[in-house]
Amino acid sequence: MSMHSLLINVPDEFETERLFIRSPMWGDGALVNAAILESLDELRPWMPWATKEPTIDESEENVRRARLKYLERTDLRLHLFDKGTGELIGSSGLHQIDWEARKFEVGYWIRTSWGRRGLMMENRDQMIYSKISLTGADSAF
After folding, report:
1. Which of 53, 79, 99, 132 is the most exposed place for a label (fewest CB within 10 A)?
2. Which stretches of the chain score pLDDT less than 70?
3. What is the pTM of this model?
């Protein structure tokens, strides 16, 4: 018998050596918007949603939808913050979740000014370890 995804306990936040990682929260729209606008040229080739410059309201609406999906356990988007500065440096998450098969797709992007520092690898390793161990997933891809 399978457990309903709403009954799966997934933490809202966790940390690595240099990062504070948490689920989207109301009010994150302006922070996400600034990171996207800075990084849009680099995001366009890889992210289907990066077609135009979003407004702050559009980013806030997107964050609120992401929050609801996180609570429903249908998509586990995370926001990454530098511990030293508190700046939002990117986003990652577990997407295309198949709770029956216990597998996920790992997606991520980093703000252009924060690239090439190993932060996304640090996030990815911790995220996969935390989420797989907490959810009993068999794989992430």
Report:
1. 53
2. 1-3, 117-141
3. 0.85
